[in-house]
């Protein structure tokens, strides 16, 4: 149809035909070069100009204080037969309740009940949600800021040497941290923390580690606590004590369980310098990859993470501008 129209127009008036073609050329050139201010996605547009105009959504974050801290002391010596040592660091007096052989299905049903039914703010609330689907229970009182080590072990009369082959129906250990004083639950947004811990046994000898941690706020959600991947200099990498044979064994066990190495959190390495300018302080977390590698000045120039090249969907700042100004005043 367009060709027929142009031929007819040329036969009618060659000069008018030339004027129409020239006008179309000028309009098309203007659209391509952006003369009219319209964002036309064409290949001829300057790539740098496109980067400046494309904005990555900055996620609005709300800062909350987590009163609970839990780590594994000497994970290499932990096992089902010898037990495990946990190190706690709590801002208030708390209760540590350990559930050995907790049902996987009942645990996640309990987390859903925290969202839709009742709040899991006490050990009794979790036990009601679990319907006592665990093999053994231990409870310890944790003093405020004590950072004490708690030794947990299955009683010998249980005669449990392993929890079967993977996929398993029970977690070796689930640790629940709750606030001991009821008045403290009105102060903090986080009222409890659930930690799922793997402990090696005769069947599954993957090294001891925390598989996941869930923070349970008063509003009725639960959040999976994730580690941030900080940028690191080559000379800041800590020496590894693990042997190649041990690494290959862990890798094969992870594959057997249906996990990849990316599913397991690597040791955190930190550096204060931006990976791009090597001058500004790292302050921005990129999502969903969770790499923390850019400063305030460089973050606006990137649509892809400079470390893994994944597209950045959202980002948020670790510290606000006011907090950074306060730190500068302290150093002066």
Descriptive report:
The protein is of the alpha+beta class. Among the domains are: 68-225, Immunoglobulin-like (Sandwich); 270-327, Herpes Virus-1 (2-Layer Sandwich). Helices cover 25% and strands 23% of the residues. The chain has 7 helices and 14 strands. The protein has helices spanning 2-12, 14-33, 47-53, 104-116, 123-130, 244-256, 321-331, and strands at residues 57-58, 70-73, 84-88, 94-103, 136-142, 149-152, 170-179, 190-198, 209-217, 223-224, 229-230, 284-287, 291-294, 314-317. The strands form 3 sheets. The protein has a 6-stranded antiparallel sheet. Strand 12 and strand 13 form a beta hairpin. The longest helix has 20 residues, at 14-33. The chain is elongated and about 105 Å long. The N and C termini lie far apart (75 Å). 20% of the residues are buried. Mean pLDDT is 80; it is low at 42-53, 234-244, 256-262 and 264-270. Its main location: endoplasmic reticulum. The chain crosses the membrane at residues 15-38. Residues 233-272 are annotated as: Disordered. Residues 274-309 form the RING-type domain. Keywords: Cell cycle, Endoplasmic reticulum, Growth arrest, Membrane, Metal-binding, Nucleus, Transmembrane, Transmembrane helix, Zinc, Zinc-finger.
